[in-house]
Amino acid sequence: MTGDDLDLALLGELCEVAGPSGREERVRAIVEPRLAQMCDRVEADPLGGVAGVRGDGPRLMLAAHLDEIGLMVTHVDDAGFIRFLTLGGWDAKTLITQRVTVHGREDIPGVVGTPPVHVLTAEQRTKLPEIGTLSIDVGLPVERVRELVRPGDVITRSRELLPMGDVLTGKSLDDRVGVFVMLEAVRTAGASACELWAAATVQEEVGLRGSRVAAERVEPRIAIAIDTCPANDGAGGDREGPGTTLGDGAAIRIMDASAIGSPELVEHLTRIAEERDIPHQFHVANRGGTDTRELQLSGRGSIAGCVSIPSRYVHSSVEVCHPADIAAAIDLVAAAIETVHVLADDTTGDG
Ligand SMILES: [Zn+2]
What we know:
Elements: H1 8-16, H2 25-38, E1 41-44, E2 50-54, E3 59-65, E4 70-76, E5 82-87, H3 92-95, E6 99-103, E7 107-112, H4 122-126, E8 136-137, H5 142-148, E9 154-157, E10 162-164, E11 167-170, H6 173-188, E12 195-201, H7 209-218, E13 222-230, E14 250-255, H8 263-275, E15 280-284, H9 292-297, E16 303-311, E17 319-321, H10 323-339
Parallel strand pairs: 3-12, 3-13, 13-16, 14-15
Antiparallel strand pairs: 1-2, 2-12, 4-5, 4-9, 6-7, 6-9, 7-8, 10-11, 11-17, 14-16
Helix pairs in contact: 1-6, 2-6, 6-10, 8-10
């Protein structure tokens, strides 16, 4: 597959829909019927995750998370501005002056306001903002805001997926691009000798919570998370530091702060990528984490790793991915579906 073959309408739909941690239902509504179409059955879990199941053999679990980073309303202040807490890892600088959608009694647009540079003192101009001091302006009087918005309502970034030069930019590519890769890999993969579980997980951004439950239910023998990884070739990036490069292919994640990829799976993914001429690179870091951790540590343990899609500006409203990397990740995960059963032939597990 090449970048030109991607179903950008589906990827756009997935990225643009709102689904912060704990409130993934709108994303699930897109994903579940597609899994149902391609699998023998789907299984939902009580947290809101869903998995498509098909085939026979050793259990292979794919996992991509439905949730995106978001915000949660704590209260509406006396001036009518919405105060909030964060769901997942935010950098305050990337939140200021952004458009958001407040999911109250109805969806309403808002902006994360900040005083204009004209009124800032010299000291204020050099100070980094703190999330706790920010609030959202929805342009309505306080009484009306309080009718529409209650504590616990969630807020998401508001941004369409836009082709930009050779790349794509938008919100929530983390991890809707992973969900997209999983769906497209399951759709395009050839025959598999595994019992395949394609799991759309929840609450990853608040601590890999949904994948723990999903993995306990599946008890995978082999597991592959699909998620973004930071690229260091963007604006302001440290090209000498650890990271990945857009356009260099799917990233096989070897290590991050949450997991060390099982060496036999890293080896297998690398070998099939070489054999099939799938562009690939490696991600080695001691920060960040993915569902891989919970997949690997669940139950009696599994052979687990992660296929990543390099992304610039992760956890902002202007995340950037390269279509060729997305296509490579689809091909690599599809190749894994077809071949990875060989790893279950040893005696370290239950087979
Ligand atoms: Zn992610």
